[in-house]
Design brief:
- The protein has about 260 residues and is of the alpha+beta class.
- The protein has 8 helices and 10 strands.
- The strands form 2 sheets. Strands 1-10-9-6-7 form a 5-stranded antiparallel beta sheet.
- Helix 1 packs antiparallel against helix 3 and helix 7 runs antiparallel to helix 8.
- It is globular, with a radius of gyration of 17 Å.
- The termini are close together.
């Protein structure tokens, strides 16, 4: 078995800076492939969104190298992994808050993360970047931390209206600028052939769920380079339809093929 990945990021058609950051790390272990992927979307309405998103991506890259092997030393335990992810989120958020306070600015970023190992997928998210699972259907694994999602949950807004609501970019929490930070960390069993798609909100707004499912599933039939081209094609389609935000997506899956 081997881990396969594909990814794409672009500043989009309007913004001068790409405030998104992307992380994809893989390793071979005695229990099979280990994959960590993350997408971070820096807050455009705050200062230094690109620095905030890069800091979180870099922090989890170091976590993959230095902390994760220790957490897995006695075997996979979701409670241990969840605690480790939550601790790193709180740690880097505090570091960003301290830096922002000393610099007299505000800065923040979303985070969505997927960790694949030993037949399990652990997801974590803060904000409105998402993780989807794709097989015979498209399933959203993460829940947005946004005003429109809160209104959907309370029955004030229909789910089909949320994507077009003018308030869709207003978050209820983010890393680096939230009084009450509460990351969601969840565990899922991995079904054979499942592809995990991580993306910033700019990637998905102009694309239908069926387009995501069909194109990403087709991309999983080839190598990582093929998937990267598929993600770029979807991003270009979103931009052609009027998306102006930064756009980032990553796909990860475990393949039986060694080729």
């Amino acid at each position: 078995m081997r881990a396969r990945t594909g990814y794409f990021t672009d500043k989009g058609t309007v913004k001068q800076v790409n405030e998104d950051s992307l992380l994809v790390r893989t390793a071979d272990t005695v229990n099979g492939p280990l994959v960590l992927a993350a997408v971070c979307d820096g807050m455009g309405g705050l200062a230094c969104g690109e620095l905030a998103s890069a800091a979180v991506a870099q922090a989890f890259s170091a976590w993959f190298d230095e902390e994760l092997p220790l957490l897995l030393a006695d075997g996979y335990d979701f409670v241990v992994i969840r605690s480790g992810i939550e601790y790193e989120i709180y740690r880097v958020s505090k570091a960003l808050e301290d830096y922002a306070r000393q610099s007299g600015i505000r800065m923040g970023t979303t985070l969505t993360l997927a960790l694949l190992y030993a037949g399990r997928c652990v997801t974590a998210n803060v904000g409105d970047s998402r993780v989807y699972a794709l097989n015979d259907r498209l399933r959203q694994l993460t829940e947005d931390h946004s005003l429109v999602q809160r209104d959907v949950q309370t029955g004030l807004l229909r789910p089909e209206d949320a994507e077009r609501d003018d308030r869709r970019n207003i978050l209820t929490q983010c890393i680096g600028d939230s009084a009450h930070l509460a990351p969601d960390v969840r565990e899922w069993e991995t079904a054979p052939g499942t592809v995990y798609l991580l993306c910033s909100d700019g990637f998905r707004h102009e694309l239908t769920p069926e387009e995501l499912r069909a194109h990403v599933r087709a991309g999983a039939g080839g190598d990582g380079g093929g998937m990267s081209r598929v993600l770029e094609g979807l991003a270009r389609t979103a931009m052609d339809r009027g998306e102006t935000d930064n756009i980032t997506a990553a796909a990860v899956w475990i393949s039986d093929s060694e080729g």
